[in-house]
Design brief:
Elements lengths: L1 E3 L2 H12 L5 E6 L5 H13 L2 E6 L19 H10 L4 E3 L3 H4 L18 H4 L3 H16 L3 E5 L3 H13 L5 E5 L19 H6 L2 H14 L4 H15 L2 E8 L13 E11 L2 E11 L3
Parallel strand pairs: 1-4, 2-3, 2-5, 3-4, 5-6
Antiparallel strand pairs: 7-8, 8-9
Bound molecules: pantoate (PAF).
């Protein structure tokens, strides 16, 4: 496994990996890798012969009051995990390589970037879209794999790739969960033991809401009740919303079919995100 930190070295390494028409898969990450990330590496391997992982804590996607400085970092641990996962190349650019002085271009996305995380974290998806576009261009990857855990991010990246006529294929991979149902996230490390014990109530409450809606209960009743239960248990819910999966527009009143239930809730100063498919029957 080769680790590169300079742009010219990256070009040479990715050219070598793509030589002879072998496909290159990219897994963009911000490090602090867990089982969820490693499942993305395995998924990338299913679509491409060589796999590159980028590790870059992207300052552009953090707001002024967000946790950039506190974002967990574990370079040695990450590299060891990637070696074990059979990754071919790790791209770890310094901030100055990604955003050299004078850089003045960003990718501004409408549509699926509006609302939800886009409202709670202004500028976040501009940062994600910009860095992902740069990573796609820098590596020349044929496919990129993203976790469904960040559902809105996945839809935003798909939108960018389609709107800018990129040739890269964007692949979503199902959320990997702990045994108690909590979605793997680098931010889980910051939960206290008490908060960690409470955290699985979020996916459990979502599952219960989905089961009730599948049996015909109205989202307008189920979702406020579920939100109130989370609040009473100690969460600070931001949203629990039923949306159209790709556009993230509100799920039309009374419609049937496969919707997406999106959730964000604070637990102490940790923001937990989750989402699940929700099937609404005909009524
Ligand atoms: O999901 C993440 O870890 C980041 O948002 C990403 C896609 C690596 C862009 O910085």
């Amino acid at each position: 496994m080769r680790v590169v930190r300079a742009m010219d070295e990256l070009r040479e390494a990715t050219d070598a990996l793509r030589a002879g028409g072998r496909g290159l898969g990219l897994v963009p990450t911000m490090g602090a890798l867990h089982r969820g990330h490693l499942s993305l590496v395995a998924e990338a391997r299913r679509h491409a012969e060589a796999v590159a992982v980028s590790i870059f804590v992207n300052p552009l996607q953090f707001g002024p009051n967000e946790d950039l400085a506190r974002y967990p970092r574990d370079e040695a641990g990450d590299l060891e995990k990637l070696r074990g996962a059979g990754c071919d190349l790790v791209w770890m650019p310094p901030v100055e390589a990604m955003y050299p002085p004078g850089a003045a271009t960003v990718i501004e996305v409408g549509g699926p970037s509006e609302g939800f995380e886009g409202t709670s974290r202004p500028g976040h998806f501009r940062g994600v879209a910009t860095v992902c576009t740069k990573l796609f261009n820098q590596t020349g990857a044929d496919v990129a794999v993203f976790g469904e855990k960040d559902w809105q991010q996945l839809q935003v990246v798909r939108r960018v790739a389609a709107d800018l006529d990129m040739r890269i294929r964007i692949i979503g991979h199902p959320t990997v969960r702990e045994e108690d149902g909590l979605a793997f996230s680098s931010r889980n490390q910051r939960l206290s033991p008490e908060q960690r014990a409470l955290a699985p109530l979020l996916p459990r409450t979502m599952e219960e809401a989905i089961a009730a809606m599948a049996q015909g209960a109205a989202p307008d009743t189920v979702l406020p009740e579920a939100t109130a239960r989370l609040r009473a248990a100690g969460f600070v819910p931001d949203y629990l919303a039923l949306v159209e999966p790709a556009t993230l527009r509100p799920w039309p009143h009374g419609a049937s079919g496969e919707a997406r239930l999106l959730a964000a809730a604070g637990l102490g100063d940790v923001r937990l995100l989750d989402n699940m498919a929700a099937f609404l029957p005909e009524r």
